[in-house]
């Protein structure tokens, strides 16, 4: 079992109370006594004004966003979490954090203790994974510094954490209802974009309606810097819908980390970041020190109807209230997919820093066609014409204890018809709804082709960020049109493909990833867009279930695994 795979499993063991961490690897690094970081969390709704208008948010200890977890590689984090939501579960109490896949939700009023060891440094975040709790504000940053005695392949003098999100005035419960309704009611574009939980609804610099000073909950956190220094910006996207471009006026950014993995440094003016992704960039404060500079985040990939999120890079010699005379950096054209693809293809692994190249060949291949469909009048997203509907009994328990009636034993299709025309709406728009899973042989190498297509409307195809739980994977390549085996794979990068946990497929295109199925368990692989996952856009992978031991009782107290005999069996491992 690789350390990367192990970490993804164990880290989620902590934050599963509705959280999924993009963290990987939990094997002791050295014979150094670890520090233990203890947290006591209570999750409940609070009134808050993220964009200067009061609304309800999901808070942790009365804070939004949730507290930042920070530790060194090799440390132990312990969180005691209590669910104080009166009507909702808070995700899952063990392992991966995906209700109905890994475990049962933590029920209202219940508590659970999470304890995990981290050893892979990087920029991560946690978030609720039950219903659409991420949209309601249940998320926070997780930063893992290098272990004692270790160093990183770059130098910096200071750092800032930027957690990006989008925000709606409509409640998540109303959003969920609309997505399942007939006729379909879309959630629409977000009302605001947030940086570290702070945004400005209806902000107009020209009209002077923006609130950049004061103590309001929506006032931006100004980033105060010294001239002629290098700063690390840790940037993570928890957005529920939006893809974003981030820019710092007059300053270039050097990308050095992606999803907790070091990459060959490259310079950009605009950082394209999609839901589920995280980056570190280095910024040199080498501009005129007598001015402040805008930092902007704006929507790409969808026709925007949301104003930019703004904050300030404040040189210490200038008052923080002094706004720049120039306009904020403009967001690139929302449908400039050539630039987005070029950015993605610049990301290459940095050798010699805990990086292993991918296996030269795969044992198994799966092709996943992404389509928008209809089912009994509802609008759905489907994979190979199957829309995912999760069962009442978590897969981890039903597979471990061979409960044959817990889900459909017929696996979903591993491909789609070769004559399917991805450039036009499907001739048959109806899909099926199912909860079958892909069973993978442990330690095999798997290639996954993510194939994009036209949606229900003509001349429409979207950017899809996909996130794989429990594993990192190598991104072998991107391409336009339909993937053709023996032709498209000539574009593969097998020399230094990046290790990621989130990957994009661009409109009408394909993306191929490769991973080793070396982490026993049941794992979600899904689009990291809240409404689309709610509409069925995902699959479930399982591997090495005979190796899974010691599932806590709390993880199985729902569905068929609530049976007393099963719970007794878990006590024996």
Automatic annotation (TrEMBL):
Report TM segments: 12-32
Q: Which GO terms describe its cellular component?
A: extracellular region; plasmodesma
The family note in this entry says: Belongs to the multicopper oxidase family.
The UniProt record lists the Plastocyanin-like domain at 43-145, 162-315, 427-544
An example Gene Ontology molecular-function term: oxidoreductase activity
Its keywords, alphabetically, are: Copper, Disulfide bond, Glycoprotein, Membrane, Metal-binding, Oxidoreductase, Transmembrane, Transmembrane helix
Superkingdom: Eukaryota
Protein name (database record): L-ascorbate oxidase
